[in-house]
Write a structure and sequence with these properties.
Layout (H helix, E strand, L loop, with lengths): L1 H32 L12 H5 L1 H7 L8 E3 L14 E4 L4 E8 L2 E8 L2 E7 L2 E3 L5 E8 L2 E4 L2 E4 L4 E4 L16 H7 E3 L2 E5 L5 E5 L5 E2 L3 H5 L3 H9 L17 H9 L42 H6 L2 H4 L19 H9 L12 H7 L4 H4 L2 E10 L6 E7 L7
Antiparallel strand pairs: 1-6, 2-3, 3-4, 4-5, 6-7, 7-8, 7-9, 9-10, 11-14, 12-13, 15-16
Length: 393
């Protein structure tokens, strides 16, 4: 009997040791690769060692700031968010409250706190709007209110019920594929044959990091750490050597609207890959931009694109601020259109046009799908986005 007990204890000890060893191996592997995406990916801090100037500029870039996790209570201090109360009706309100442990959205019905959630993540670079999310177990959920930056105003999240508070919209992998660099997910069977998606929280890489656009860099980093005097980039796709379609596809993987789907996650789309041959890819069909843009299709439908060698990088400096003054963008237009005439414009308008080609030839369009409902009002602030179809309007 004693011998049997010892054997069971020994067996349990061996099993525990095996599990511990397995965990240690996994942790060691992650530490060696430095990235949850695998051994091919370098530690995310590696780029700064050789590309410090670019890295420092990129910290202020809209891509890098397209999402961020809020790890500290003061993480939202620089965002200019004010405490406020959003009114659905006399009985139903949402309070935005800054507390000691972070930023909360609180549902009040007849003055009673019926539900509250702390903001865990924010989407948006701060140019147009912020969207907020909270963790519900291992699911990421959208919060009831958005914040419009130019208007300094809290509004009902687009597509949410107009007369009641809603905490029930899940943020899925397809959202994060364009608003983050990686997250590991799994499908969980729920009641009534439904399926839900859960995330491994520690796997989430917020924002668009260097390797999301430049591809896995472990070999590149290892080589140049071992050969510090070698200045020619090794084991890294040279963006300048890509074809124009490959360059545009690299941007288009996130700027082609929501219909784009791949057999494998777009997290692993790399420079040189293509999206045009995917059956799910939707080409330009004459529509205006709406919500998620379709900038790639709109640009490719433009005469400027068809009759030149321009690509996204012709106008956008991807490592710095993506929204310079319109006069700066216009200088790019004038490189080809130096002798353009505007016979219908008077002298004053013609003078203004020299510094702003954009508002006429790439106008801001109003969304036909969504608007932002204001507090205590049926009025909706329209969602606006600049079209990337360059044309005479």
């Amino acid at each position: 009997m004693l011998t049997g007990q010892l054997n069971r204890k020994q067996l349990i000890a061996i099993l525990f040791l095996g599990v511990s060893l397995l965990i240690a191996i996994v942790q060691c592997t992650e530490q060696e690769s430095g990235d949850v995406r695998g051994k091919k990916y370098a530690n995310r801090t590696s780029c700064v060692q050789c590309h410090n100037d670019i890295a420092q500029n990129y910290l202020h870039n809209a891509h890098f700031n397209t999402s961020k996790e809020l790890h500290t209570p003061s993480a939202t201090d620089s965002m200019g968010l004010e405490e406020n109360v959003y009114v659905f009706n006399e009985k139903t309100k949402v309070g935005v409250e800054k507390r000691a442990d972070g930023l909360y959205q609180v549902a009040y019905v007849n003055g009673e706190n019926v539900k509250e959630e702390r903001t865990a993540m924010v989407f948006g670079a701060g140019k147009s709007a912020y969207t907020f999310a909270f963790w519900y177990g291992n699911r990421l959920m959208q919060m009831p209110l958005n914040y419009l930056v130019p208007e300094h105003e809290w509004v009902n999240s687009p597509g949410f019920p107009t007369e009641q508070i809603y905490f029930g919209r899940a943020i899925i992998t397809r959202c994060l594929e364009c608003h983050s660099s990686f997250v590991q997910s799994k499908i969980i069977a729920s009641a009534n044959f439904q399926q839900e998606e859960e995330f491994l929280k520690n796997s989430l890489i917020a924002g668009i990091d260097c390797q999301r656009c430049h591809g896995p860099a472990a070999e590149h980093v290892q080589f140049h750490q071992e050969h510090p005097n070698e200045k020619e980039a090794k084991y890294m796709v040279k963006y300048q050597e890509l074809s124009r379609s490959q360059k545009v596809d690299m941007c288009g993987v996130c700027h082609s609207g929501t219909n784009l789907k791949m057999l494998n996650s777009t997290f692993f789309f790399k420079p040189g890959d293509t999206i045009n041959n995917l059956p799910e890819y939707t080409s330009y069909t004459g529509e205006d931009p709406d919500v998620h843009g379709k900038q790639k299709q709109l640009l490719m439908a433009s005469k400027c694109y068809k009759l030149s060698n321009m690509d996204c990088g012709s106008c956008h400096q991807t490592h710095t601020n993506l929204s310079p003054d319109l006069a700066v963008y216009s200088q790019t237009c004038l490189q080809c259109h130096q002798k353009i005439k505007h016979p219908s414009l008077d002298e004053k308008a013609l003078h203004l046009a020299k510094d702003n080609c954009i508002d006429c030839h790439m106008p801001v369009k109003v969304s036909k799908s969504i608007g932002f409902q204001r507090s205590a009002s049926k009025e909706k602030i329209p969602y606006k986005q600049r079209t990337h179809r360059i044309a005479v309007y």
